[in-house]
């Protein structure tokens, strides 16, 4: 048993993974969590018998860190169909992954998503990235994702119909300014693994991580005002003196004395509706390429996991990337857009809840997938964790938590 007083600030994925690694080394850490539950940005709420993930999120089964820390079988993962369905008013067509679904090769050739040459290039890109090493991806020449797609020769048609709406929904920004390294990594993850959700909601992921902890205490509703050296000042006025600290939350909120610059995040608005049944009727992500629409993408989560509904009604998750802070009657406008896309009257889309998530994803300038353990160190005995240090992903959150714990443990190894 290690008797050092180690505190972790934040019970999100990074903090939980850090605690797992510290326990392996004999530590008994304490997690200070501002909220009343674990999970950080991964939360699932029950509303009227439906499970609502706060923000449309998926688990990519190819994530290396997820494979290490999670028991996929115990999560009872439900799998999305590879590809996407494109919705335009009066027109619907599909995108298929020919490597994963060879029988869809012919339909893909004739799909209106892009030109025949686009589909050849898509096939080649999928094949190339499937075998490209992660370290080669993250050391490659960097550019924006949009520049990358144009350099690869993709037409404006397929960029508009598929790449933009699909990756806008992942990167949560409208211009595809996100690093091409991140694009290659995520594209590879989709190519070699599956997009999935746990049967009972995304919060099953942090719950499973928490279940691995046996010697860690969590103090909920504990708001940290700031940190000075190894003293933790709480909003309550109490002061905790720690031997070591891992900050697994937005660092600018606790380091008053450090010039960390303004925080940068991408936002998303996630709306939920219930309907009697799905008009898509298959476990697939649906994209809306028309930029006049507020809706960027949507999915019937009950097509993926029936457990998201208690009574058999369909649950529809809608993502809006645009700034809607000044939009009035948002729910009615989105329902009208769904009517235009599906032909189903807007009155049949019953609104359940809307989540405005201003800090949905960190806007990372220097995108990477690995960092030396010493780079997690702020100063002696204080360490950082969080996906903001690498890239905006569950994989990065886990990596950073592990690296922070390794740095702390390594500081005492002679």
From TrEMBL:
GO terms for molecular function: oxidoreductase activity. It holds the Pfam family Amino_oxidase. Its EC number is 1.-.-.-. Keywords: Oxidoreductase. The keyword Thylakoid does not apply. The keyword Signal does not apply. Residues 13-409 form the Amine oxidase domain. This is NAD(P)/FAD-dependent oxidoreductase. The lineage of its organism: Bacteria, Pseudomonadati, Bacteroidota, Cytophagia, Cytophagales.
């Amino acid at each position: 048993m290690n008797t050092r007083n180690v505190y972790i600030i934040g019970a999100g994925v990074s903090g939980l993974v850090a605690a797992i690694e510290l326990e392996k080394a004999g530590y008994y850490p304490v997690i200070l969590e501002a909220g009343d539950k674990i999970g950080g940005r991964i939360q699932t709420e029950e509303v009227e018998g439906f499970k609502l993930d706060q923000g449309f999120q998926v688990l990519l089964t190819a994530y290396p860190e997820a494979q290490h820390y999670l028991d996929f079988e115990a999560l009872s993962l439900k799998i999305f169909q590879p590809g996407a369905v494109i919705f335009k008013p009066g027109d619907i067509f599909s995108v298929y992954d020919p490597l994963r679904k060879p029988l869809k090769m012919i339909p893909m050739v004739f799909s209106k998503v892009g030109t025949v040459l686009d589909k050849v290039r898509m096939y080649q890109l999928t094949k190339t990235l499937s075998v490209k090493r992660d370290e080669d991806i993250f050391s490659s020449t960097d550019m924006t994702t949009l520049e990358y797609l144009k350099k690869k020769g993709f037409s404006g048609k397929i960029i508009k119909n598929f790449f933009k709406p699909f990756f806008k929904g992942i990167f949560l920004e409208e211009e595809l300014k996100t690093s091409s390294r991140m694009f290659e990594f995520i594209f590879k993850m989709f190519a070699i693994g599956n997009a999935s959700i746990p049967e009972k909601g995304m919060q099953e992921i942090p719950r499973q991580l928490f279940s691995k902890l046996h010697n860690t205490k969590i103090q909920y509703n504990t708001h940290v005002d700031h940190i000075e050296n190894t003293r933790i000042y709480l909003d309550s006025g109490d002061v905790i003196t720690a031997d070591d600290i891992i900050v697994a939350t937005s660092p600018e909120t606790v380091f008053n004395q450090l010039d960390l610059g303004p925080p940068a995040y991408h936002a998303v608005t996630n709306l939920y509706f219930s309907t009697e049944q799905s008009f898509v009727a298959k476990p697939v992500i649906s994209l809306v390429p028309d930029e006049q629409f507020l809706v960027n993408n949507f999915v019937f989560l009950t097509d993926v996991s029936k457990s998201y509904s208690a009574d058999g009604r369909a649950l529809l998750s809608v993502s809006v990337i645009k700034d809607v802070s000044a939009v009035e009657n948002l729910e009615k406008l989105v329902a009208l857009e769904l009517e235009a896309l599906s032909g189903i009257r807007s009155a049949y889309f019953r609104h359940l809840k809307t989540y405005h998530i201003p800090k949905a994803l960190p806007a990372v300038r220097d995108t990477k997938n690995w960092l030396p353990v010493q780079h997690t160190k702020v100063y002696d005995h204080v360490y950082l964790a969080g996906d903001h240090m690498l890239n905006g992903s569950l994989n990065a959150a886990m990596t950073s938590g592990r690296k922070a714990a390794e740095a702390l443990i390594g500081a005492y190894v002679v």
